[in-house]
Amino acid sequence: MAKVLIFGGNGFIGSNLTTALLNQGHEVIIFSRSSKFIGNNIRPNIITGDIGNFVDVRSALWSIKPDWVFNCAGVLTRGVSEVDEAEAYRINEQGARNIIDAILELYPDSPIHAGVMIGTAMEYGVKVPILREDIFCEPIGTYAQAKHNATSYMQEVAKKYHVPLVSARVFTPYGPGMDKDSLVLKIINQALAGEQINLSSPEVTRDFIYITDLTEALIKLITFAQNRQGEVFNVATGIAVTLEQFVSEVLTVFNSASTVVWDKKLKSVYDNRVWQADMEKTFSATGWRPKIGLSEGLRQMKSEFSGSK
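User: That's the sequence. What structure does it adopt?
Assistant: Structure tokens below.
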């Protein structure tokens, strides 16, 4: 079993990854601003600190000397203020650089076995073809740009110094513990309340991946990172689902009578007509396949909602 350090272990992806690893018997330590774990019924070891502070990051890595490192930390830019912009770069880019630089300092005396840096499909920018890892990225917005800068730095360091780091370019994860402001949870909550659901366009697509499939993929990836230094892997299902299909499935699973209104004025820069991952590389490298389809994922979320009442 591995000793695992997870940066951002209190977020949606990080907390679910922590639970999955602990259930497999790994020793897990999370690095977080908070000393309380948001996950259910499991209490991992926690180091409090600021990922944007190199001293905090270096101290954690040097004291723990983990076998595996995951960077699940991330800050979305919901506003347009300079403070939001600066914080996004500090956490998403500088935080990742701090981890990579601290890992590099550990070499060669106490090298980690592997590390996975969590990126985002938004690094690609708005594209029409199916999104493959080797296409040219044109990130739009601060969050995507900061994440892409972090990916580029990881690739540079990993290939130059032979550090076993890879990037997981995650598409649209959903499941228990997700951000209350996420599109998926907003639609579900409106459906549960019987409210009108306002969306941009029925043709906009997403490549949804259920959280347990995602965590399984991340664990698979880290076991292959030693031989794939500096590479990027899509993590998704490879299936494009339109918003019309998605909201229809939500209404069916949650037995909702909500009406849906389509309003093009609500369209964002990320509303890509074809938002679909090419999964050939990830499938081939890891042997992993997603197990939870959209209907089943939503049913599991419904069970979580029922259980929390």
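The radius of gyration is 19 Å.
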